[in-house]
Amino acid sequence: MDFLTVSNVHHTYFSKKAVTEALSNIHLSIEKGEFVSFIGPSGCGKTTLLSIIAGLFEPTVGSVKIEGQEVFGNDSLSIGYMLQQDYLFPWKTIEENITLGLKLQNKEKEDQLLASKLLNDVGLPTIEKKYPRELSGGMRQRVALARTLAVDPKILLLDEPFSALDYQSKLKLEDLVSKMLKEYGKTAILVTHDIGEAIAMSDRIFLFSPRPGRLYRTFEVPEEIRKLTPFEARGHSSYSSLFQIIWKELESLEQQ
């Protein structure tokens, strides 16, 4: 059985002045431990679909299930969400930020040890008592990753989490996230405008057409790329050819 299934999802936004169809007839499935990316023209509904998968709101039509359980309204499912901004609480220490989710779930017993382990895993040992203002943007995103993993989410949803970083920090964080998700055996979905990032990090790439967003094409990333780190993947010959194919498809969609 597939780990995550999106079945016949349509979504429409209603306002006093307009009705906007954001998504139409979305069907897709993701296997446990798989890393996939959503790409497509601006306004094609990628983030809307990610929010529906997160259970933040119910689709107008259709369903999203994780291991057979409906996502919307299901408080028993732990879903991790990383955004472009880290949203760390500035008045709390790094340790307190990481363990906040555990406190909300009444799972505080080993939170201090877990915080130390996760910080060590993301390459930031001994900063538990520091505050977010004392860290760089890349370091703050590493803390955000540790905070997300602390609650042992079923799936990790990444909405352009690297886009605000300088290029060097972005590449380093891509490698770290890829390594951590493999070590922790996590399933992940990345929303990005960066074709190269999608290729370097993913097992599969879902390309969406312009609004209303429809699943236009699915690309399988070659195994010889998948077994490399994201940084190494960018130097592989198969990377360039796949980049050109996706680039041309995206260009044609944006001109429609």
UniProtKB/TrEMBL annotation:
<keyword id="KW-0547">Nucleotide-binding</keyword>
<dbReference type="InterPro" id="IPR027417">
    <property type="entry name" value="P-loop_NTPase"/>
</dbReference>
<dbReference type="GO" id="GO:0005524">
    <property type="term" value="F:ATP binding"/>
</dbReference>
<dbReference type="InterPro" id="IPR050166">
    <property type="entry name" value="ABC_transporter_ATP-bind"/>
</dbReference>
<dbReference type="GO" id="GO:0016887">
    <property type="term" value="F:ATP hydrolysis activity"/>
</dbReference>
<feature type="domain" description="ABC transporter">
    <location>
        <begin position="4"/>
        <end position="235"/>
    </location>
</feature>
<dbReference type="InterPro" id="IPR003593">
    <property type="entry name" value="AAA+_ATPase"/>
</dbReference>
<keyword id="KW-0067">ATP-binding</keyword>
<dbReference type="InterPro" id="IPR003439">
    <property type="entry name" value="ABC_transporter-like_ATP-bd"/>
</dbReference>
<protein>
    <submittedName>
        <fullName>ABC transporter ATP-binding protein</fullName>
    </submittedName>
</protein>
<keyword id="KW-0813">Transport</keyword>
<dbReference type="Pfam" id="PF00005">
    <property type="entry name" value="ABC_tran"/>
</dbReference>
<dbReference type="InterPro" id="IPR017871">
    <property type="entry name" value="ABC_transporter-like_CS"/>
</dbReference>
